[in-house]
Amino acid sequence: MPKRDDLRKIMIIGSGPIVIGQACEFDYSGTQACKALRKLGYEIVLVNSNPATIMTDPGTADVTYIEPLNVQSMIEIIENEKPDAILPNLGGQTGLNLTAELAKLGILEKYGVQVIGVQVDAIERGEDRIAFKETMTRLGIDMPRSEPAYTVEEAEKIAARLGYPVVVRPAYTMGGTGGGLVYNSEELRTVASRGISASRVGQILIEESVLGWEELELEVVRDEKNQMITVCFIENVDAMGVHTGDSYCTAPMLTIAPELQERLRKYAYAIVEAIQVIGGTNIQFAHNPETGRVVIIEINPRTSRSSALASKATGFPIALVSSMLAGGLTLDEIPYWREGTLDKYTPWGDYVVVKFARWDFEKFPGAQDKLGTQMRAVGEVMSIGKNYKEAFQKAIRSLEKGRYGLGFAADFHEKSLDDLLERLSEASSERQFLMYEAIRKGADVAMLSRKTHIKRWFIEQMKELVDLEEEILKYKGKALPDELLARAKKDGFADRYLSQILNVPEPEIRRQRSALGVVEAWEAVPVSGVENAAYYYSTYNGRDQVAVSDRKKIMVLGGGPNRIGQGIEFDYCCVHAAFAIRDEGYESIMVNCNPETVSTDYDTSNKLYFEPLTVEDVLSIYEKEKPEGVIAQFGGQTPLNIAGELEKAGVRIIGTSPETIDLAEDRDRFRKMMRRLGIPMPESGMAINLEEALVVANRIGYPLMVRPSYVLGGRGMEVVHDEEMLKRYVAAAVGVTPERPILIDKFLENAIEAEADAISDGTDAFVPAVMEHIELAGIHSGDSACVIPPISIAPKHIETINEYTRTIAIEFKVVGLMNIQYAIADDVVYILEANPRASRTVPLVSKICNISMARIATQVMLGKKLSELNLSNRTVPHFGVKEAVFPFNMFQEVDPLLGPEMRSTGEVLGLADSFGLAFFKAEEAAQSVLPGEGTVLLTVEPRDKGGILSVAKKFQELGFRLIATKGTQEYLADHGIEAQTILKMHEGRPNIVDSIKNGEIQLIINSPSGRTSAYDDSYIRKAAIKYRVPYITTIAAAAAAVKGIATFRQGHGRAKSLQSYHHDIK
Description:
Strand content: 15-25%
Structural class: alpha/beta
Oligomer: single chain
Radius of gyration: 28 Å
Strand order of the largest sheet: 14-13-10-11-12-17-18
Distance between the termini: 47 Å
């Protein structure tokens, strides 16, 4: 069937900010959808609240709205744009839920908007646990025994009937939010109440446990003619009980019999036919290897994290093909490189793909490193190898955890076998590394398999690696025999790992294997659904089959796996670099290993190498392709960590030199330079031990900001108020970066923080905007809400910031991007730090100010001068407020406080004509909707009492009822502000938590009691998260909130497209 001509304009809903369970795979699928549908001639309206994505760039869709993803915004956009259809299944759970809601309210019918790709009742059949169960029963497909519950009491009765352990699954959520595996009634009560509050419809399913069964996934695509194909069979190596987003998996299935795969395929086809999805669907099964029973766990009638993985693993772009099918095409009209058209597609490939998750537990003190049915991973890597061992070891070195192999991780090799086995009894992020050392100590394969539910075959493969490593270790400090080195490389051992365990310099290992002809060869993964496209992977188990062109080339190093502190913003910069390189007439080459991103899409660059970002892998590609240069400043810390070594090995890094980047990181050299330039910095010092730290502290006075050198995302930073805290920090911090000292700076209390991004060509610099942080100094810039243009910084200080930024960029000979952080205290502008690389604010500034910074920076690196690019500072008449989004709902045990260590996973942007409204919309987009009326709880520590007065007065003027804890209430009363007293938890009942549970509090303003208080008040913040009451932990944000509510009272404004905002910039 040809494309539908009854449609002209299609609306696509994005997935919003990056959170655990819904990450940049939706930027990838949304961007692909825009590409596919525009190519078919449709006009695209895109809605998303996430400014860090390529998807929300003004060039991706015809009309772009960066607005909160809620029903009100959608109605306004539908009224503005009058789309003919809405495509909901590319925006994750968010897109599906919103479409279902719009349909229920009759909005779609009222405005004549069709739903394409997946029908509204199909969303219900796939997502609503009761409707799904009815469909499966009708098809005769087995499911775990289960019953729905709406209260904790119902849940307890059902669990008693089914027998423990049971699984709690909330309806309409993703990433396993709010769910969990429970072993007794006490655990059930906790998880069930959490699950009911997490579900959009207050519904949970209590399900028999299939703990330890095999978890198997299929990605299936169906078209309008009911033609179906299976894109990919994925085997989760971790068994049921670990969320699929946390479990490591392989494609194809390596230990599953063809008969069982065929059975699963039949079931999958029956399901997608019944649910009538057009496009991609992900289906998860559990299989009991002992009895052969197969049950269906869930289906996702949308593109998902697994579909991004399946797309990259097979070269089948599911989102692209799904969009074409939604536009009316059928599989027999889309090209397939092997058999003509896609209806004949079968999974193919003589390679193995491994996906491995990346966790950041260390960012959340108090979080338990335990894996269960609620997802905890913040990112993932994918690797491709000729055999399982090669792919597995490549995945480990892609993770960037400082581990290049499985052995000698942390101190596991020093532990006794009993110790290791005890730690293996529960799944954790360290499981594979613990198992490796247990095997080295003689653990039995069958016993490990029983303990972990991991199939014997995978453990046997690991044992073969351990045995080979033991043989290698006999040559410690010496060169390996040639035959052994060749075997090690074929099994995926990294140069760096061999160098570490043998105590031999890495370049020597590289020289020895190169002399033997043991070098990386490359093979292609051909792309289906389009003509003549492929991307490439390396192997030590084959011959090189990839040709190189003689065109001039530039190579871009990507950002590797997502993590806290380094997210999609860096991918955004890499993608823009690839586009700009292409437009300037060069061939662009991308190196990255993150399957979720746009940078690893097959057509972002002329050539994509799906490879780990290590010296060994990048150098091999460099030597093969011989590019003019390599761009290392866009991928966050990842490429910068290897830039120095690459340069030593003869790689030409273009843009700012690694030497300059080093200079900015070296606090001592940087301070001397600032002194020479006459730019003030807070007083500081360095220390290697406690004695030195105390000397520095006495010289500059408390409070202090302490941190290790060389970090991204504020790892290990803390504000220290007294000697006691300093002692504690030094005792704990030694391990962070052993060869580098602790940096100690005077902490500027109550300072306003600001930052500026600059583009420089080495002799001239341009500063598009200064951004003001809403939270005061002491909160990591990635976690603070910020606003462009600034609202409270004096014009003279903005001028100073611009001047300092230009001076530093030129003095450092920066070529490309630079980000500088400032603090303004006592009428003085201080510089805090300078980063001569892309920062996470680049997409934000680009979108608010309509300037494509990463693109211009790339042009400059390729030799253009700023003077040729006619840039000028224009007045931005609107306000853009960025708000960070946090994963605290996934880490219930962690106190949700902000500080100098970054903890946010993503961000949203609120755009409006006034600051108040922009802030209100940003909070709305971050799912922390500020109330228009009701009761505000105030409980602040003594230091913040002064600041709370004006906030409380404004809330009172707006008609809010105020309640406060004893100390705060007395302080307010002394200043003529009336508030009722409420008890803290240790003071009796009814207390704060009772009021939160009863829905009597609409907003909480709580600045933490600090260590001075005898009582911990984190329970207030934890209760706020559980019961979804907006809470604010800083006075500065409270002041912004009251402004936002006051403006909102005067009218919410209307949704307005990014293109319209840009049009108004003069």
